[in-house]
Amino acid sequence: MYNKLQYISQGNSIEAQLYNIHQALDNGCDWVQMRFKNQTSKNSFALAEAVKFLCEEYLANFIINDNVYLAQQIAADGVHLGLSDTKIDDARAILGNTKIIGATANTFEDITTHIKNGCDYIGLGPFQFTTTKEKLSPILGLEGYHEIMQKIKNHNLEIPIYAIGGITLENVDQLIETGIHGIAVSGIITKSPEKGKLITQLNEKLYANVII
Ligand SMILES: Cc1ncc(COP(=O)(O)OP(=O)(O)O)c(N)n1
Ligand SMILES: Cc1nc(C(=O)O)sc1CCOP(=O)(O)O
Ligand SMILES: [Mg+2]
């Protein structure tokens, strides 16, 4: 089973990214997506190497946003690809079958296409407005999640769905009720002054009904 809480990294420098990722790991996150936009290859590689080392130390999953070749180069656990990024089958050909490939969806049709193309999980969003990402797709809201999750059930599709976009602690129970597998969050963790408490609360909610 994939972990249910994915932290998407933030920070405008290598140092800021590393600080934020280290804090998230140290306070209980076990899945990091390194999202470091508009950087030189040298900077991205340097950060990725350091994050890989950290994630190994904390036994956390480590995937990279957008950059399939970087994920291959540093042997990350996988990659997350958006609707305008590298195609899933091309990424699979590069990374092989053992790596995680996540894909962004905004509609039920996006999800069925991604499943056909062999992705491992879906990031479905945006749930609500967020300043973390520019050029957001149409906001889904709770109603959008209910509709799409219902269609997934009706078509007997099985793939982990992660809600994403402006999610706060207060949204998590209602999102879980729609049938999502987990959440991918950035701002609430980066900005939290009490990361340990927040991540514990998020994990308690996300794993409340999991029988081990
Ligand atoms: C888990 C997860 N879901 C969605 C996204 C968004 O990916 P994308 O649409 O490619 O946008 P950028 O993150 O690249 O700006 C994500 N990163 N992670
Ligand atoms: C990276 C990303 N992708 C989104 C999408 O809808 O595809 S929303 C988003 C931002 C997630 O960060 P936060 O938790 O700070 O809103
Ligand atoms: Mg992308």
UniProtKB/TrEMBL annotation:
Residues 15-186 form the Thiamine phosphate synthase/TenI domain. Its cofactor is Mg(2+). Transmembrane segments: none annotated. The keyword Cell division does not apply. Mg(2+) binds at residues 66, 85. Its EC number is 2.5.1.3. It catalyses: 2-[(2R,5Z)-2-carboxy-4-methylthiazol-5(2H)-ylidene]ethyl phosphate + 4-amino-2-methyl-5-(diphosphooxymethyl)pyrimidine + 2 H(+) = thiamine phosphate + CO2 + diphosphate; 4-methyl-5-(2-phosphooxyethyl)-thiazole + 4-amino-2-methyl-5-(diphosphooxymethyl)pyrimidine + H(+) = thiamine phosphate + diphosphate; 2-(2-carboxy-4-methylthiazol-5-yl)ethyl phosphate + 4-amino-2-methyl-5-(diphosphooxymethyl)pyrimidine + 2 H(+) = thiamine phosphate + CO2 + diphosphate. It comes from the Bacteria. 2-[(2R,5Z)-2-carboxy-4-methylthiazol-5(2H)-ylidene]ethyl phosphate binds at residues 130-132, 166. GO terms for biological process: thiamine biosynthetic process; thiamine diphosphate biosynthetic process. InterPro entries: Aldolase_TIM, ThiamineP_synth_sf, ThiamineP_synth_TenI, TMP_synthase. One of its GO terms (cellular component) is cytoplasm. 4-amino-2-methyl-5-(diphosphooxymethyl)pyrimidine binds at residues 33-37, 65, 104, 133. One of its GO terms (molecular function) is magnesium ion binding. Condenses 4-methyl-5-(beta-hydroxyethyl)thiazole monophosphate (THZ-P) and 2-methyl-4-amino-5-hydroxymethyl pyrimidine pyrophosphate (HMP-PP) to form thiamine monophosphate (TMP). Belongs to the thiamine-phosphate synthase family. This is Thiamine-phosphate synthase. The lineage of its organism: Bacteria, Pseudomonadati, Bacteroidota, Flavobacteriia, Flavobacteriales.
